[in-house]
Amino acid sequence: MLKGIENIEWTPSGQLLAVIGFNEMIVLLNYITWKPLSQLYLDPVIRECNYLTKVYKECTDSEKTSDKRFASCKECVVREIHERPIYIEIGKKDDNDNFSIAKVKLFEFSTCGQYLALKHELYPTTLWIWNICTDYLDYLLLENPITAIKWNPVHPHLLVFSECTRVYEWTQKGVKSVPLSKNMTIVDGYWHPTGEKVALCGYNKAMIYEIANAS
């Protein structure tokens, strides 16, 4: 049950309305009957109840950081984690912010409208990717706070940014971490309308990244 309305968002087709409550609850409404079709609670514990739920976690690659010469430069990989339960890391609240309520910070439907990606301020390093057709979830657990997400304008293909030198690519097949220039901290990106390349933005730099097999 929703407790207040924090935000709303239409699917690209306009047939469903997602309503976000202040209790980490998202409800999908049918635009004809306005009856709830499905709902998602951002549970901080990933349980065994749904065997089709997938969890992808960023881990330090011990083989690549075993050499002391490179110990200061962490090499990370993204692996699917099968152990359950998993407790999602809660972020630290700003000591200077004593009055605001934590909210869903990022909230975006894929172009096809089948997937909803979202991040809550309470869990800054975690991304939920909800398949609203099957009601299954993918989780992406990163080392750094997620700063931006951008869906491909053509395919169900998501880029995730976390203020580091890597970009994370999610598709229906899985997640991969793509290392790019070590001289540029990437915080956001903007897709070309064809979905074949993306402009990556840092604090004082930008670069063009061409996507291979975006579909």
What's the total count of β strands?
19
Largest sheet: 6 strands, mixed
Supply the helix-strand structural class.
Answer: mainly beta
Question: What is the rounded distance between the termini?
Answer: 36 Å
Give the strand order, joined by hyphens, for the main sheet.
Answer: 7-6-12-11-10-9
Overall pLDDT, averaged? Answer: 88
Number of helices: 0
> What best-fitting shape do the alpha-carbon axes yield?
globular
* CATH H level, superfamily name: YVTN repeat-like/Quinoprotein amine dehydrogenase
Q: What pattern of helices and strands is seen along the backbone?
A: EEEEEEEEEEEEEEEEEEE
Helix content: under 10%
Task: Tell me which CATH architecture applies here.
Answer: 7 Propeller
**Whole-number radius of gyration?**
18 Å
- Whole-number tally of structural domains: 1
Instruction: State the assembly state of the protein chains.
Output: single chain
Give the CATH level 1 class: Mainly Beta
CATH topology: Methylamine Dehydrogenase, Chain H
Strand percentage lies at 35-45%
Low-confidence stretches: 66-73
